[in-house]
Every structure is written in C-alpha cells, then in structure tokens.
Amino acid sequence: MPVESPCIKVPKKSGAKAIDLAAHLNLLNRDLRVSSEGEHLCVPLLNKPTGVDAEKIVTVLPESKITTRDFHKRSKYPPTAIDLAKELLPRNLIDFFPSSMDFVGDIAIVEVPSQLEVCKKTLGEIILRSHRKVRTVLAKAGAIGGARRLRRFELLAGQDGTETVHREHGCIYYLDVAKVYFSPRLSFEHNRVASQVVEGETVIDMFAGIGPFSILIAKKHAEVRVYAIDLNPEAVDYLKRNIIANHVQGKVLPIIGDAKEVVPSRLGKSADRVIMNLPERAVDFLSPACDALKPGGGIIHLYHFESGPNPIETAKKKLAETVERIGYKIENVLLARVVREVSPYRYQVVLDVGIAGHAIQG
Predict the structure, then answer these.
(1) pTM of the model
(2) Which domains does the chain possess?
(3) What's the pLDDT at 248?
C-alpha cells in the first residue's frame, strides 16, 4: 500500500548525489523505494528538511525540489541491479548497463561503458544497493600494465578503500586490488591445475601473485612443495600472510624476484610442474621454465593472449616454435582451451604441455 512521504525530486543524472546527500543528513527513508517520474527521481525522506538541511540541499542540488508524493515500501530483499537501473537511469541508457563485473571480496569492479560515463556514480550506487555483500564499487580507470600487472581504479560508490578479503575454493586471500594482480575469473583454472598435481610433486609458480594457484595446491595435497615467485614485493607480503592464514607453512615457499633470475640461480632441474600465469609475456620465460623441469621432464601450464579466428592453433604453433628454438621438445599437448575473451577477437588461452626431459642436442 502506498505511503505518502516528503521527498527530494531531482533529474536522474543527480539521483545518486541526492541519495548520498539525504543519507548524509540522516533524512533518507530507507523503508521506502526511490520512485521515478519521467526523467526525474523522487528520493523519500523521513521528514521535510528545514533550516540548515534545506539550505544544504538547495546548495548541493540547485535543480532539486522538495515535494510530497506516494511511495511503495521497500521489499525485504534488495532489488536486482536491472530493476534499479530501470528506476534510476534514463530509459535510453538502460541497454548499456554492464552485463558482468568482477567481485573480489566485498569489492565490485566494473568497466563503465562510454555511454554511461555521465552517470557512472549512479551506476555505482545501483551496484552497491543491489549486492548486499558489496561495500565498495570501483571502476576500471585504465588497462593492466607494468611488470607488476597493476590497474588504476576510480571510486564510484561505497567506502573508499581497495583492500579486501577474498574467499575461493575454501581458501582465504588478503589483498589490495590496487597494489597486486588478482583475477577472480581464473577461479576455475586455479582449481583445475591444483587438481592435477600429484602427491610428492615439486611445483614452481613463476608469477604467483598473492598465491591462488600455490596455496590451493598446498591445501589439496599433503605432500607437495610449491615455490611461489613474484616480482612485486607487496604481492609477496600478501602471499606470506595468506600462507599463514591458510595453514600451508612449509609447503608454499615464497620468493621475491624476477623468475628469469630466480629459477636459473636457485631452482634449476627441480620441478615436476611449472605454472606460467603471465599471459602478456609468458612465452618470453619458456627457457627458464623448461630448465626448471627435472631431468625426466615435466608439465608446463602456460597462459597466453592470442588474437584472430583460431587462437588455440596459433598459440600451439607459437609455443612449439619457441620451445624448439630454446632446445627442447614438446612430447604432447595435454590440454588447450580458451579461458576467456578479453576483448573482441582477443583471447586468453591455456596450454598444458608435456616437455621432454632432455634438451635437443644441436
């Protein structure tokens, strides 16, 4: 049954700002649903603002109007994102609402379409309100770049902060999304690779980050040793913290440094299996990866970006040529699959390959 309430009426482009201001002034009526009137929104209030509160609203929202109207009570469960989008966004922009986003702990990370740039704060508010476990909404503000594979973010809604706790496959990971690389979209791969490891193996994780491959392997297997390498000192700090949090001390051994230097100097001919999750440049590290395998050979899990109509076949050819050039031989391709499409006609692929135990004599 509708309930009459005072409200702030504003253009939809100012909807998120009106909601934030009403909440800041302790005037927002959270029991009632924000209502839409054409290209305007009506934000329900607990009471009609007066004095300083009324002046603040006029100053921050000069296009606003204090009025009264009927509102529907908010349901017990949060509305869906698309329902809120229909309520808060102009009708011609609803089709551009992002169809997917990443959730890392209690942080939602979204790529804002250019069409929604003018109302990205409203987009953030929609995501925040439709996902109870989210406390912060961040927008991607650039591509992943640099040796540490970091990305810049812009706060859209919620609490200002980029540190969180992420849970995956029974493991707990502390991380800061602005200071370390982590992709929840690789969750399937983390579990797939960990499930292939055999008891007693030695594994080298050449680009370990905060440890999603290394730690899950150690959690799944009683007798295993994983050397987890990363160039980013902050990633290694979180890795060490996560090793303790997941009780895998002694099984996961963190190493800070460049894998091209660490492997030849410390880990040559020691591994049954090597994980190479650096799709931008993994092929450049194949020489130390092959040198890291035991004399009897072993398995390499290589992640790689490839474009074109046949990304898997192209990746296979490139891998075979590189392995042969550095003096080794591929015994078999155990698996080749597309992990995900990262942009139109550009894919992340994974190749699991068996490498022969001895270098080719030239």
Answers:
(1) 0.79
(2) 3-71 (3.30.70.2580), 81-161 (3.30.300.110), 179-355 (3.40.50.150)
(3) 98
